Amino acid sequence: MRFLTVKNFDKDKSTKFMDSKNNLIVDVNGLVKRFPIGFSGFFTALKGIDLTVSEGEFMGLVGPSGSGKTTFLNIIGTLDKPSEGRVNVLDKNAGTLTPRQAAQLRKEEMGFIFQSFNLLPVYTVFENVEFPLLLLNLSYGERKKRVMETLEWLGLTSKINSRPPQLSGGECQRVAIARAMVKRPKLVLADEPTANLDADNSHRILKTMVKLNEELKTCFIFATHDEKVISYLKRIVHLEDGRIVKDISSQKSELQ
Amino acid sequence: MIKFLLKGLMRDRSRSLLPVVVVTLGVMITVFMHAYLSGVLGESLEKTANFTEGHVRVETRAYADNFSQLPNDLALVGVDTLEKRLERLYPEYNWVQRIDFGGLLDVPDSSGNTKMQGTVMGKGIDLLQSDGEATRMELKKLLVKGRFPSKAGEILVSDELFEKLYLSLGDEVTLISSTMFGEMAMYNFTVAGSLHFGVNVLDRGMMIADIRDVKAALNMEDAAGTLLGFSKNKLYNDRQAVATKTDFNKRYESDEDKFAPVMSSLSDNGLMGFSYAFIKNMAGFIILVFIFAMSIVLWNAGLISGLRRYGEFGLRMAIGENKSEIYRSLIGEAALVGIIGTIFGSMLGLSASWLMQEYGINVGSMMNNSSLMISDTLRTQITPFTWFIGFIPGIFSTVIGAMLSGVGIYKRQTANLFKELQN
Question: Are B296 and B191 part of one and the same domain?
């Protein structure tokens, strides 16, 4: 796999964001999330979370199954709402967004990477990566430019006309990363992105993400319990039983 | 975005090919059924109107009450005057006199003794003075043997009767029947030709004679069983017929004589009324049946496709599409599939209908004992509506199917997308 330096990236959006207050991407205060159980009971998945995530962070929510990682990621991704507390994502209060506003925020500012890639099998690599840009109503010329640029970053230019069933797992996940990155989001949320990959591919994917994070200043938030992922994180937030038990920042900035 | 979705639709055959095939088949059947029913029932209605009922019919009240017995003793008298009056009052119709009668046809041998006898159902129509009736009943087309009557005393008989009685062209036959005054009637005719009606009830024993001969035979001077009115534009118009009937009957409302004339429309006849209503409403009926049936099939196809595309919809929601946008795109895809399927289905249905319209299917052997006035060659009839009827079930069913199967999109919890998309 080639690693390319990101040369042509349009940094306007990032620069604009850097000018906004405190460079905060996520600002969480007293977040509680309860799920109803039966007719009268509740299960509290998140119990008073306070957390801030700044621009360019490469951090992970780490913890055992049931610790609340995915629930927290859902709320940050505006896929779910907090029961209590305030969650600001990209200067928007996630608790008060309408479904349409939440969809708009995801469309414009967020990228998602899933464990099982979730590529659209009938479309080519180019088309899969192009899809988020279609939702932004960009012209074909602009879309093509951005898709090609992104595929170049990820070393996928030779696979442009391939369809997902023709790709390896590692290639599929790189396409998924390209799809998440193509609109140059400020925030990428990745839930167990290496769970379906072997060790070699996992390392390659993670190195790619570190590079993108460093060069594009895109904030990555992972939910994981994979040691390989954890070893690349610059900040590790340990969750246990719905609470943050540890928040460790490292100064890893070099590619591993 | 539309182009993008179209690409996906074209490439994913389970989303495009299967529904297109279902719609094509459904539409083809709808179109063909419509043409078939228009053809078979329409022809039956038309044939019945031309042979017995007319678009409107005038007879005496007593005759109307006993119509099935052909009671010529209850026939209209002063019929020439009444015919002229009807022509004046209702010029939109062509008025003709008819006499239906029953009797025995006696075939003598060379010494004048009875050789063969057969029951006949007779019809007295204007055969000699104008060819209006012959054209209306398409008699010249039905001629199998001999020629069309050209002078008084000549008759046509059904070919089956012709064979059964071992007749030859030019044979003298005697009709034995009863006059309108109840006396025995015997009248000699010459067989000029034989006809094949293609309608079992007529082929069994029909004779057609000029009405003047029948009047002479049955002693019905200035009388006729019925006066039939045929719309000059040849198409039955129930509204016009009912209006004419109502107006005519109002004129005789106060007359309590059982021999007073009374008018009825084609749709007043029980079976004809049902047939007419059926033909009129069948399009809606067929459409409803096919919308219902195809919606269920396409709903299921949509559900299966929806399950397959569950990941795609989830992903689209995650990366910023609204549920309503996804739902609308699903309906758009369905409408497109519906239009394509409808075009193919209509083409196939129309082709099959055209073939059957041109060549027909002979079912004579299946109708040996039928008394229905249905042709032994079934033909479809392509009407202007046949060209469009398929679009209604074709597009409605796909859209309704997609709407039903797409409801799941609204029920989906976006909060579960991460969990769902893990698998």
Answer: no
Give the pair of three-digit tokens for residue A18. 């850097």
Q: Into how many domains does chain A fold? A: 1
Judge if B301 and B327 occupy the same domain: yes
Interchain proximity B320–A135, CB inside 8 Å: yes
Q: What would the pLDDT profile of B251-292 be if each residue is shown by its tens digit?
A: 998 888 889 999 999 888 766 666 667 766 766 777 778 778
Chain segment B172-186, per-residue pLDDT in tens: 999 999 999 989 999
Q: Which of B235, B264, B288 is the last residue of a domain?
A: B235
The DSSP bridge partners found for residue B146 are: B193
> Cβ of A131 and B4 within 8 Å?
yes
pLDDT, residue B283, reads: 65
Average pLDDT over residues A82-89: 94
Query: What number is the ipTM of this complex?
Result: 0.81
- CA–CA separation, B100 and B202 (whole Å): 13
Phi-psi region of A81 (alpha: psi -120 to 50; beta: other; left: phi over 0): beta
Count up the domains in chain B and report the number: 2
Dihedral sign of CA atoms B224, B230, B194, B375 in order = negative
Interface touch B421/A114, C-beta < 8 Å: yes
| Domain hosting residue B312, numbered range | 2-47+273-420
Strand pairing report for A110-113 and B76-77: unpaired
Residues B65 and B152 grouped into a single domain: yes
Contacts of B320 in chain A (CB under 8 A): 103-108, 110, 132, 135
